[in-house]
Amino acid sequence: MTVTLEQFNELAAARGGALVSLYLPTHEAGPDTRQDPIRFKNLLGQLERRAEELENGHKAAVRRAVERLRPLENDLAFWRRQGQGLAVFVDDDVRLHRLPNPVDELAWVAERFVVRPLLPAISTGETFYILDLNEQAVRLIACTTEGARELDADDIPRSLSEALGYDVEQKSLQFHTGAQPVATPADRAAMFHGHGAGGGEDENVELQRFLEIVDHGVRGMLEGKRAPLIIAGVDRVVSMFKHVTHYDQTLDQGVLGNHEHQSVAELHQMALPIARPALDAANQRERSRFEQAAHTDQAVAGLDHVLLKAQNAQVETLFIDPARAIWGRYDEGDGVVSTHDVQTDGDEDLLDRAVHAALDTGAKIVPTPRDRLPGSAPVAALLRF
């Protein structure tokens, strides 16, 4: 399952002696899927080697984590159901999250989980959804600007015939449309095939009932989110769904046409130009505030300045490029940052450290591409005082 904001906050708050974080770029289809379990096995090997460097109690915890993850190596069904990235976290529990954005490989053991690569998946300003409405297949797709994956959507009917076969009363959905019951689900489904722009009254009533069921399921899955939703489908269906939906982030413009035979990646590329203005608007106010404050003492940029201010609970809003780690060390005593081109012994992901420091003091985090940060710095901040 993809990560929710609540799950992200739980992961960010977790502390322990030997918490395991694994990240792996994955593939949804094609021959590359056969390489994913091999790369996962290699990451487990990295964990085993890292365990040898730890003290006995932590060494045993990491070894147990590796053994709990070993069964996934040969679980072919698991590897056929991936997105653009996979995140794995192990403490007392094992948590698996499929991500709509690609990530760099990482095998890490520390007193906290690495959460920086999750930011695009949970940020309102970087995430949007596509609802593909088609007679034969309904898909809900989670997207970032970099990638997309279809969600497991048990509460959303997969097709018109499946939806119209539901016992609506058992689903606690009360529709007052005045429609007369149709004899069988097959009879109901037949009403939709070959419909024209006008449609008969019974057909329109049944279509509305179907779309209301879909909307109920979508709102359940997106509860608490403020991410844009783009509808893909033929004009009549898209127009009617926008009329019945109660999800207030549904965009006016849809991806029109029958997309039954198009891949998730193809739909993502078609929807991205529609989503970009909404995504940019979500964080533009904060970026504008930073630009206005950039030459005052209310804003700082660069790892050394930001880490020092975050350590002192002065960061109100953190702007960070979540795409890449920056390895190095931070001396809390004198506020000195040392960075390295490649990870060396004793290094940590300093951007992840900045994220945790911001979260620990209640700061807002705005994932921002590096080319939109001042001076191409990897991180910047607006200050409280």
SSE arrangement:
Layout: H1 5-13, E1 19-25, H2 36-51, H3 56-69, H4 76-79, E2 85-90, E3 94-99, E4 106-110, H5 119-122, E5 127-132, E6 139-144, E7 148-150, H6 160-164, H7 185-190, H8 201-221, E8 229-233, H9 235-244, E9 255-256, H10 264-293, E10 299-301, H11 303-311, E11 315-320, E12 327-331, E13 336-340, E14 348-349, H12 350-360, E15 364-367, E16 379-383
Parallel strand pairs: 5-8, 8-9, 11-15
Antiparallel strand pairs: 1-2, 1-4, 2-3, 5-6, 6-7, 10-16, 11-16, 12-13, 12-14
Helix pairs in contact: 2-3, 8-9, 11-12
Task: Give the spatial strand order of the biggest sheet.
Answer: 7-6-5-8-9
Count of helical segments? 12
Under CATH, the topology of the largest domain can be stated as Nucleotidyltransferase, domain 5
Q: What number is the mean pLDDT? A: 83
Offer a concise description of the structure.
By secondary structure, this protein is α+β, with helices and mostly antiparallel strands. The protein contains twelve helices and 16 strands.
Description:
This protein is an alpha+beta fold and 385 residues long. The protein folds into three domains: 5-118, eRF1 domain 1 (Translation, Eukaryotic Peptide Chain Release Factor Subunit 1, Chain A, 2-Layer Sandwich); 127-282, Nucleotidyltransferase, domain 5; 294-383, 60s Ribosomal Protein L30, Chain: A (2-Layer Sandwich). Helices cover 36% and strands 20% of the residues. The protein contains twelve helices and 16 strands. A five-stranded mixed beta sheet has the order 7-6-5-8-9, with helices on both faces. A hairpin with a 4-residue loop joins strand 12 (327-331) and strand 13 (336-340). The model is unreliable at 166-198 (pLDDT under 50).
